[in-house]
Amino acid sequence: MREKRRNGTRPGPVLAALDHAAAQAMTAARLADIPEPAPRPHSEQWLTTGQVADRLGISRRQAQRLAGTLEARRVGQTLMFDPDTVHEYATSKETQHVR
């Protein structure tokens, strides 16, 4: 199909209809595969890596490593952490050290 367009010849009506149907099916399939966007965290509600590091008394790199444990979300290139999860983690760590 592309070759015919490049050569300047028009495809026949059957081939054009088939190409159009294939393009629509591929577009629909791609759209079906795209997950719903996650709710965008608000800066007042979510914590950055630096804020998490400060609250937990660890380095930024250590906070990044905890992203999976703390269920962080990536917004662009920034990791955002749920403050409740960070608080629960900090509380559980304090409890472990007290024993």
From TrEMBL:
Residues 46-92 form the Helix-turn-helix domain. InterPro entries: HTH_17 (IPR041657). It comes from the Bacteria. This is Helix-turn-helix domain-containing protein. It comes from Dietzia cercidiphylli.
